[in-house]
From TrEMBL:
Belongs to the PNP/MTAP phosphorylase family. Its EC number is 2.4.2.1. Residues 25-270 form the Nucleoside phosphorylase domain. The purine nucleoside phosphorylases catalyze the phosphorolytic breakdown of the N-glycosidic bond in the beta-(deoxy)ribonucleoside molecules, with the formation of the corresponding free purine bases and pentose-1-phosphate. InterPro entries: Nucleoside_phosphorylase_d, Nucleoside_phosphorylase_sf, Pur_Nuc_Pase_Ino/Guo-sp, Purine_phosphorylase. GO terms for molecular function: purine-nucleoside phosphorylase activity. This is Purine nucleoside phosphorylase. Keywords: Glycosyltransferase, Transferase. SUPFAM superfamilies: Purine and uridine phosphorylases. It is an enzyme of class 2 (transferase). Coiled coil: none annotated.
Amino acid sequence: MSALMDQLKETVAYIQGQCSVRPEVGIVLGSGLGNLVAELKVEKEIPYQDLPHFPVSTVEGHSGKLIFGQLGNKKVLAMSGRFHFYEGYSASEVAYPIRVMKLLGVHTLLLSNAAGGMNPAFNVGDLMIIRDQISLFAVNPLIGKNEAELGPRFPDMSEPYNKQVIVKAQEIAARLGINVHQGVYVGVTGPTFETRAEYKMLHLIGADAVGMSTVQEVIVARHMDMQVFAISVITDLGIREEENIITHQEVLEAAAAAEPKLTAIFKELVQVI
């Protein structure tokens, strides 16, 4: 058995020794988007630092624990705080928790992130369901020896985000009176926000929103044949006329303001997937 599989099995065994919940749905909460946890009937929380081989989050707005519980009729596992390539982790380490989720029984992954908007139709605080992604600027987490136990050497990425789940989410949003866009998310390494020229270039190649997370998690999830759904909260606008600078504090504030809409959609979506 490979070193990675050994580590994964050790992490999973530790979690199963601590917690009897067998989650079906995994949720990853992005910057400033942690309040969905308040909707959970929490059964167990495990800080990342207690987990063998788990990275530890270093970013403000990411609290750093696995939360096991019940959301409506579903057993869920929420990551409160995610890992980023710009923190100095390898692409494989960034995606490690997603592999753990799958081995714990998770079949569907719901992701959220804070993103910069590049589509002129977007405003700060809007929600964008991610229809597709561009990951040319992020290191692929599957580089290296393929783990055949986890998935194929060359996984198909023609449908990274599950179309049926997207339809369900749009129906829920319409019923709740929440306006949502659909669009393409491009992942970059960060930690700098983009230059004006970079925002324009990313929009020209087909992206509607840009962020520093998500794409590596999605690649690993699809490698393991998990269903994936994701929403970006548009926390700043990269393409606009006036002179502006973007700060992480502003991103967190915009995410917090939009979060009730995101939470409402996720809460109902979990019940129908």
